[in-house]
Fold:
Amino acid sequence: MDNTNWKYNADGYYHYTQMLLASSTTEELLIEMKGKGNVVVVSELAEVLGGGDNTIFADWGQPLNRIQRLSKKEDLILENTGVRLAVGGNSIGVTLVENGEDISYRNYEGAKTGEVLKHMINEGETVILGNNYLEQMSIKNSGDMDQYVRVKITKDWIKAGEIQMKQDPKTIDFDFGDDWIVDENNGWLYYTKPILMGETSSPFVKSLKIKDEIKNVIDYTETKNEENATVITSTRRYHDSDFKIAIEVNAIQSHNAEEAIQETWGGSVKIDENGTLSLVK
Structure:
């Protein structure tokens, strides 16, 4: 049969021989199959890369995303049946939004890394311990498929450019959003709803505060003076320290999300008939 721009390779995949432009769609791939059993259709997209000799190629060892379509029938009869698959330019894309402003993104067209908390306080001000600062952070679906997302926040205290292991990251306290659930085993926040194309989640962070208990944390050191007498020096542990947060976002297509999350993220989730995600303990 005529699948003009499709070529079957020894790796078991049909490869489309033409570069697929953004938002475009391949020709139909028509495959005739006979037999009995389950059908699994997997499509993978790889970024177009450039070589030093001006050639272009795709690294299939690092696909941009992997979409699996699985027939859940126990016995699917395939007799003289044509399976049609048209792979479009669908891709995952996420944007980190802080207080209504796009900060960072990664999608098919590229990536940008930004800095959060830049406007939490005005220049020249210092953070007031125990004060709640409005910091609403959300995830926007900047791809072209519906997707589920998860977020991980890493918190550190920094002094003289080095991470301080004695300073407790838990003193950097976030108020998490109601539509997000925390996996206590690894700290990931899961959004319980799929984010549709072009839409934005509810905030995963609503506010931030530095717990005022840190002002009472004091370290004591002992030294000897010239007369060999013991000198005890007290220092506030968090004095002259900065706090730093890093945000990591993962996204996965909403189609067959339970299986895809298990395979890609390694977690076990349940998605009900309304699309609501919950963690399986």
Observations:
- The domain at 94-214+240-254 is CATH 2.60.40 (Immunoglobulin-like).
- The first helix runs from residue 257 to 264.
